[in-house]
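User: My instructor asked us to take a sequence, write out its structure as tokens, and then describe one feature of it. I'm not sure where to start. Here is the sequence I was given:
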Amino acid sequence: MIDSHVHFWNYHPVKDAWITDDMEILQADFTPDELEVELLKNGMAGCVAIQADQSERETEFLLALAQKYSFIKGVVGWVDLQRENLPERLALFSANEKLKGWRHIAQAEPQGFLNSASFLRGIAQLSHFNHTYDILIHQNQLGEAIALVEKFPEQRFVLDHMAKPDIKGNGGWLAWYDGIKTLATHQKVYCKISGMVTEANWTNWKYDDLKYYLDVVFEHFSTDRIMFGSDWPVCKLAATYTETKQIVTQYINQLTDLQRKAVFELTAKECYQL
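Assistant: Let's start with the prediction itself. The structure tokens for your sequence are:
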């Protein structure tokens, strides 16, 4: 089994300013050694490391960890997709076989970022290197994400955290539903069932709070485009690694063996070319 979404960092209050005081549990170092304990305990054979800092140094940091730890099967790094010499940077990083794709924290960007000319020019380069792009947005940016993927029908995209629906507030669910339904019609778009507990009430969530959102994703995406991600260590704000995995295990218990294997292994391997 493969965990398609984990993070590592050596905590620094300036670099990691997004970790606010109400996230004190994350104001620490999180290393592969610590994660390996959780993976082994939960029967996971490997993971994909995802960028958490907007710098090429972050990409180099994750790739160095992937070279040291064989269970890190792939890296989704960061590069400035709007820079003029992007093809040169992509070619340089592509020399490392563990580099699988890229992500920009678009949830923090102003309206229109995903469809700006400079960003689109960068996305257009990724197919030349067989790289994925992870879409990290809030639910109110789904319209931009749809416009983005429509422009690149052959590009592999990954929707992180199911577009962060407002589970806690239960707001805007109809627009979220429509966005997921439309995105799922694009066959090169994959969806990670991840990040749910941190969009719910951190201290008082329950499985039934999450089931509707899982229902929608599984209704519109086939299991060969759905993958499990723990979002460790961010999940620790609301749940243990085991609890996070158990949510998905419980939900897909109704599926066939092959479908369960897709969610927990095969989709991630195919999407990220692991």
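For the description part of your assignment, you could build on this observation: The two ends are 12 Å apart (CA to CA). Try explaining in your own words what that tells you about the chain.
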